[in-house]
Amino acid sequence: MIGYTTIGAQDLDKALAFYDTVLGELGGKRIMEMKNGQLYGFAQGPLFGVTRPHNGAAQNCGNGNMIALRCATAEKVEQVYAKALALGGKDEGKPGDRGGGFYGAYFRDLDGNKLCAFTMAG
Q1: Is residue 16 part of a domain?
Q2: Would you say residue 47 lies in a domain?
Q3: Residue-wise over 6-20: b if at least 16 C-beta within 10 A, else e?
């Protein structure tokens, strides 16, 4: 089981404003401030961290890296996706059925990190 994950941000203030709203859609709240960033917590599940790179080098996105955010319903997937785009995120795949009971939407945050909001049919 994953305990937490982190993503890098160049402009931490802008990134935190983005994630305060996007993760807030899923019940996420700031729970632990760190020297270079912030951890968000949820009622259940892993923590989500947003940080400046520890080594001081420029933030970058790994090819093939993505973080998936579990949603309770397809409607919540659509809400998270719409909120991310309204805040300046970029579309990487509109909400839809991807087969096998998987319903997801893909977007990039302000730093280009790729995320997926998804739900699985019961």
Answers
A1: yes
A2: yes
A3: bbbbeebeebbebbb
Would you tell me how many other CB atoms lie within 10 Å of the CB of residue 91? 12
Q: Is residue 59 part of a domain?
A: no
Torsion angle of C-alpha atoms 82, 95, 27, 121, degrees rounded to 10: 160
Where residue 39 sits, what CATH number does that domain have?
3.10.180.10
Q: pTM for the full model?
A: 0.92
pLDDT tens sequence for the chain (122 residues) = 689 999 999 999 999 999 999 999 999 999 999 989 999 999 988 999 999 998 989 899 888 899 999 999 999 999 999 999 999 999 999 999 999 999 999 999 999 999 999 999 86
Q: Which domain holds residue 20?
A: 4-53+65-120
